[in-house]
Amino acid sequence: MDDRLRRRTVLGATAGGIAVSLAGCLGGADDEEIEADTYGDWFQNGRNFEGTIDETDSDELTVMVGSGQGLSYDPAAVRITTGTTIVWEWTGVGGSHDVVEEDGEFESDQYVEEGHTFSHTFEETGVYRYVCTPHQTQGMVGAVDVVEE
After folding, report:
1. Residues 6+ apart with CB under 8 A from 37
2. Dihedrals φ, ψ of 2, to 5°?
3. How far apart are CA 147 and CA 149, in angstroms?
4. Which of 24, 25, 33, 65 is the most buried (most CB within 10 A)?
5. C-alpha to C-alpha distance for 72 and 32, rounded to whole angstroms
6. How far is residue 127's CA from residue 74's CA, in Å, rounded to a whole number?
7. Do 39 and 107 touch, CB atoms closer than 8 A?
8. What's residue 34's pLDDT?
9. What is the pLDDT of residues 9-41, one digit of tens each?
10. What is the pLDDT of residues 38-59, one digit of tens each?
11. Which helix (H) or strand (E) segment is 28 a member of?
12. What are phi and psi of 102, to 5 degrees?
């Protein structure tokens, strides 16, 4: 009888572990679907994209321009609320960079020097996808997902 009880306990614990593991996998798939719904294939060849960073509690945040080896934005994607200001700050790495939104909502000049900044306050909800025009083909892209406050 003791052996049967132990076997049931082991089988029950194993089944529970499998269920938790599968739930974790399903959660990841949901996150990937949300990212795909939000950005489409925007980050398919992008650098430094590891998911959307939630900054909905911030009034202002900084995105580094020319991070990593100089050809990415960090973070690549953020979620903010209306009224939030993003300040892009140049690292001085990777040559001349700019920040250009695909529909012309905002656009900086090209700069090289470390510490230069460009800012934009987001007043309307939506997804704003942007590039560094000299390095777009090398995957230097970013996005801002703006939600209602």
Report:
1. none
2. -60, -40
3. 6
4. 65
5. 21
6. 17
7. no
8. 66
9. 433 443 444 333 333 333 444 666 667 789 999
10. 999 999 989 899 999 999 999 9
11. helix 2-39
12. -60, -25
First to last CA, the chain: 61
Measured CA to CA, the distance from residue 131 to residue 58 in angstroms comes to 23
pLDDT of amino acid 35: 78
Residue with tokens 């009888």: 1
Count of Cβ atoms closer than 10 Å to residue 43 Cβ: 23
The token duo for 73 is 């934005």
Give residue limits of the domains in the chain. 1-39, 53-147
Question: Are 46 and 23 a contacting pair, CB within 8 Å?
Answer: no
Which residue type, as a one-letter code, is found at position 99?
A: V
Quote the pLDDT of residue 30.
Answer: 60
